């Protein structure tokens, strides 16, 4: 009789633990599902995929300086891009360095600025640099990751801009979006 009671109690405990484990596991998986949206620039030359949970929306649609210009109010996360048609052969690396230096010189509160480094994103050889600067309009320090690509016909610039204090949280999101970049 005592052995029978032990077996019944043990079975009930195992089933209860199994039920709890399955409940936790199924809830965890549902919360980890993230939807994505594929976006193309206005000129349809740049494509990237962004997670829907960031809440991106068009930013300043009347600004025609950018071929793609989106942001997230939720966390002040900006992505903007330019496509520049090449008229002739250019010293690409020198153009990037000049632009980076111009940005640094035109902003009083640059905290950190990396050198221009060569990287590969997907099949594209590219260059990038990082800058931290204070934006008085937002009253916050921002981190910019600027990526430059060159093809035979175009130069592409994609900028990711986030509050520097959110770097640890949003850097993996930037890296994920960077891995989806396609150029046309």
Helices and strands, with pairings:
Blueprint (H helix, E strand, L loop, with lengths): L1 H31 L3 E5 L5 E6 L4 E3 L9 E5 L4 E9 L6 H15 L3 E4 L3 E5 L2 E12 L4 E11 L3 E10 L3 H12 L3 E2 L1
Antiparallel strand pairs: 1-2, 2-11, 3-4, 4-5, 5-10, 6-8, 7-8, 8-9, 9-10
List keywords for this structure.
alpha+beta; three-stranded antiparallel β-sheet; 2 domains; Protein Transport Mog1p, Chain A; 184 residues; eight-stranded antiparallel β-sheet; 39% strand
Structure description:
Strands 3, 4, 5, 6, 7, 8, 9 and 10 form an eight-stranded antiparallel beta sheet that branches. The protein has three helices and eleven strands, in the order αβββββαβββββαβ. It is elongated and about 90 Å long. The model has no long low-confidence stretch (mean pLDDT 87). It has two domains: 1-33; 35-183, Mog1/PsbP, alpha/beta/alpha sandwich (Protein Transport Mog1p, Chain A). With 184 residues, the chain is an alpha+beta fold. The chain has helices at 2-32, 92-106, 167-178; strands spanning 36-40, 46-51, 56-58, 68-72, 77-85, 110-113, 117-121, 124-135, 140-150, 154-163, 182-183.
């Amino acid at each position: 009789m005592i052995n029978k009671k032990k077996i019944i109690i043990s079975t009930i405990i195992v089933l209860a633990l199994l039920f709890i484990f399955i409940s936790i596991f199924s809830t965890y998986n549902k919360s980890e599902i993230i939807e994505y949206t594929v976006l193309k620039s206005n000129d349809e030359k740049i494509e990237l995929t962004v997670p829907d949970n960031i809440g991106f929306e068009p930013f300043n649609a009347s600004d025609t300086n950018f071929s793609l210009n989106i942001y997230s109010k939720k966390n002040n996360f900006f992505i903007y891009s330019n496509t520049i048609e090449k008229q002739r052969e250019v010293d690409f690396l020198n153009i990037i360095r000049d632009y980076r230096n111009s940005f640094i010189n035109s902003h009083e509160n640059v905290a950190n600025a990396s050198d221009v480094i060569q990287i590969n994103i997907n099949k594209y050889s590219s260059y990038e640099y990082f800058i931290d600067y204070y934006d008085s309009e937002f009253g916050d320090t921002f981190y910019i990751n600027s990526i430059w690509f060159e093809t035979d016909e175009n130069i592409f610039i994609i900028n990711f801009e986030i509050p520097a204090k959110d770097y640890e949280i949003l850097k993996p999101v930037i890296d994920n979006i960077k891995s989806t970049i396609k150029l046309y």
